[in-house]
Each structure stands twice: as structure tokens, then as C-alpha cells.
Amino acid sequence: MMKQFILLVSLLVFSVSWTSTSTPIQTDFKRCMSTQFSAYTKNFEIIYTPESSLYSYLLQSTIQNPRWLNATTQPLLIVAPFHESEVQAAVLCSKKYDLQVRVRSGGHDYEGLSFLCQTPYIIIDLINMRSIDINVEEETGWVQSGATLGELYYAIAKKSQVHGFPGGLCPTLGIGGHLSGGGFGTLLRKYGLAADNVLDAYLIDVNGRILDRKAMGEDLFWAIRGGGGASFGIILSWKIRLVRVPKIVTGFSVSKTLDSGVTKLVHRWQEIAPYLPEDLFIRIVIVGDGFNKAVQVSFNSLFLGEIDTLIPLMNKTFPELGLKFEDCIEMSWVESTVNFAGFPNGSLVEVLLDKKQLFKSNFKAKSDFVTEPIPINGLEGIWGRFVEEEIAIMIMDPFGGKMNEISESETPFPHRKGNLYNIQYLKKWEKNGVRESNRHVYWMRSLYKYMGSYVSKSPRAAYVNYRDLDLGTNNQDNTNYLESTSWGVKYFKGNFKRLAQLKSKVDPENFFRSEQSIPHYK
Ligand code: FDA
């Protein structure tokens, strides 16, 4: 829909608009662009300055955290290419005019790094580069970075009922950011991360060259599969491995409140969930309800098999949950992605193509990895905090299974064997305003402080796709490796050094930089 809209208006405008109000730098940039990509027959408007009517719409359309809608920084222009040569041109022209580049695929970055910047910058928005080509015989697919996960899941299901892809739960996530930071969801225990299932990629490097896996070399190919987007170049497209799923899978969601002995149940879940057969994924979602001084704990599950196999398996492995036949629903894998995204039962799978995120609100998030079960009194301390807050959420995703089989250095994502589960903390709020934001961010920081003694240590690990600038930031003009270890080692552990060494080699001028880009190793 969005694409059609941009295409339609673009056709009306037809070519680069040289408005009289453009500043010299914008005019120079556009001129540079038209020279650089003259080889390509350009049919559509691809450059939007603040004067163009679509600029604000485009800037805001994929921002997932409304907290950033009123940010004080905005790009000099947005380039929304249709063709790779236009991305090349945008990189070369940005370099020429010393403009920073922010690359955006789905716009879900928690801290807005794909569209905010403190120095003059442009956004390269891949919203028009979203083609998907699935090859069932080969069990592979090529997907452009600007496509969403929902579009990918839908495209796979159109071709095959027995294939899927192990990405995240939210269908509006952009392929570009998600895969370059790792990416996990309900198939994590069976097939690992989205990034573990990347076979090849096309990347535009700092010199504007288009490189595939062979041309970029194994080191760079390693870095872009979990090293966090935008430090090494712009990834245009990815060759992915499709994974096999049964025709029928089973989902369940069982919710409990504090008065139903849930603390013991959560405690038990920690001892069981990471060791279950890898076809069974049971996550916990905890929601604080400050209005009613209550906490709701939901056990959400995907089982790669039918109910008749699941029930005896649950009775054997996790009888404490008391799972009943009527708690479960059989469906296809693609229907399970609709279900996990939060759409009501029975929704059409076409909702996966919807670009509008469900449950959009301001938020601050943080993450942890847990290596030892949190004791009962530790869990009670969490409930104590959650009963005071309206919209506080904690999601616990079990690891184990395939994640234990992949070494810490196989990709930059090091959180493998030894991790029981990942925690994501989310504090959401409706009202805008600095004071309101500060109050919620303060609450989140105090929860994070409280959790310190119960989670991984040395380093206290974090997931780069749940980006958190509280962990530390670069000094943009002069990144310093040692200072950056404050956040880098949390995201990447021992892989941070290798990422930094590679960064020195492939981007010696540190062109692709941001508050948390990989620094040079020095
Ligand atoms: P966005 O476009 O904002 O990019 C994120 C980062 O990657 C930025 O630094 C950007 O510059 C860079 N980047 C983007 N495209 C690039 C490209 N083509 N080349 C180079 N760099 C590029 N995660 C998860 O693992 N499992 C989950 O289930 C979820 N669920 C979820 C729900 C919701 C509502 C949100 C907001 C987020 C998640 N996430 C998640 C986190 C998500 O994986 C993470 O925010 C990704 O980086 C989002 O990728 P986008 O392309 O949408 O973001």
C-alpha cells in the first residue's frame, strides 16, 4: 500500500525536483546523484528534501517508537532508492559532501539510530527495495533488506506449507536491521538465529562497490550476520536458507496471576524450558498491571507437531503447567506467525503484509541473558516492581537446543551455550513529553539495576537488536576501542575485538558510524 502510494506520487513528480528553497548542499547532493547514477534509467522520484510534500510522511512512516517522532534532528534529505545503483550513488555523494548516512530498513531500532543523527546527515531508506524470491526446490530465498519479516513469512507460505524461516515475532521488522543484528523468534531452539541461516548477501561497501559473499570475503560476511547493522556498509539483499516445518504445528497460551502460585511455576520453567526437545518453544510474557495491582504471567508456546504429541510431552516434562487440550490450537506455521504477532485467532494471513505495527507506543527497552535460574525471592522482587506500573513488560525467551550447538565465535552473536534464556524488559507509555519519558526511563533503569545480581556477569551481556544506549556510546568524531568496550563487549563478548579489527580494515575513514557503530581497533 505504502509502496503504491510512493510510486504514485513519484510518477506524478517524475524526476528529481530542484526546488528553489533547497540549500546549496542539498542542491549539490542532488546534482551529484544525477551524475553518479546516470547509467541507470531513473523513472521515479527518489530524493526527498524537507520541502517535498512526502518528506515528513516518509520520515515518520516506519518509526516504530513514537518517542522519536519529535526528535530535534532531521535529515537534510531522504533517499529512497529503487535500484542498487542509486544506493551506490547515495554513498558516494554523501562521502563527497561529508554527510553522515543513516540506513533504514524497517525503522525498528530501539534508539532511533536508523534515522537520527547529531551531525548533518541523510537517510538512505530501503523502503522501495523489498523484493522476495523463494526457491522451494533449493530451499533458499533472496530477500531485499527493505522487505518486512511478515512479507517474507507470507512469501514462503505462498510457495510451501512445509518451510519457514527462523526470524522474530513482529511482522513489521525490516530484514536489513533484523538479520544484521541476529534475529530470533519461535524457531530459535530448533534452527538458531535468522543470521545463522544466511547463505550469501550483497553489500555496498564504503567505496560504493557491490560485493557478494565471495567478493567481500568470509571475514566481512561473518561480521554482517549479527555484528549490528550499519557499521560495515549497506546490505542490499540476503540469500537465506529456508527451514523445514511440519504442515501442522500447535500453539498455546496459558495465563496465570500471582495468586495462582505462579512464582513457583516461573521458577520451574527456568529449569525446564532450555532443556526441552528443540521442537518445543515456551516463552514467558509478564505484564504489570499497576491499576489493579496485579501481574499477569503468560506461557506462550509453539510446538512443531500436533496436539496429540504435545499433550503427553507436556505431561511428562512440565506437568506443573497443567496444559489442557482446549488450551491448544493446531494451525499452519504461517498462521502461528500471525498468532504470535498478537493478531486475534482466525485473522487472515494477509495481515502479515500490513505495515502498521500493532500496539505502537512510546517505549524504553533493555535486555539481559540469564545463566542461572533466578531464585524465588528474586522473582518476588520483580513482581513487587511490576504491580506498581501500568505497562511494564518482561519477555523471557528460552535458549538451548540448536543455540547450544553453535560456537560463540561462529557469528558475532555470542550468546550461545550456557544461556538459559534472554530477557527483554519493556516500559511503555502513552503520553508524550520529556518529563513523562524521564519518569519511565528512570523506572526501567532501576529495574535493570535490581536485576544485576540475577543475570549474566563479566560481561553483563545484552542483545544488540534490543539496542540500549545506556550501555555506552561512541564519541562520534573519535571512536575509541577501549571506551567502546563498555557496550561492545556486552553485545559481542570476545567477538568485539575481531569486529573492530575488521572495521579498521574495511572502513578506514570510519564513514559508517553512529553512537554504537563498531570502532577501529587501536
Ligand atoms: P532499522 O531500520 O531501524 O535498523 C536497525 C539498525 O540496522 C540501524 O542501525 C540501521 O542503520 C541498521 N540497518 C538497517 N538496515 C540496514 C541495511 N540494509 N544495511 C546495513 N545496516 C542496516 N528482535 C528479535 O530478534 N526478535 C523479535 O521478535 C523482535 N521483535 C521486535 C518487535 C518490535 C515491536 C520491535 C520494535 C523490535 C523487535 N525486535 C526483535 C528488534 C529488531 O530485531 C531490531 O530492532 C532490528 O534491528 C530491526 O530492524 P529494522 O530493519 O526494522 O530496523
From TrEMBL:
Pfam families, alphabetized: BBE, FAD_binding_4
Molecular function GO terms recorded: FAD binding; oxidoreductase activity
The keyword Nucleotide-binding appears for this protein: yes
Cofactor(s) listed: FAD
PANTHER family in the cross-refs: OS08G0158400 PROTEIN (PTHR32448)
Family note: Belongs to the oxygen-dependent FAD-linked oxidoreductase family.
Protein name: FAD-binding PCMH-type domain-containing protein
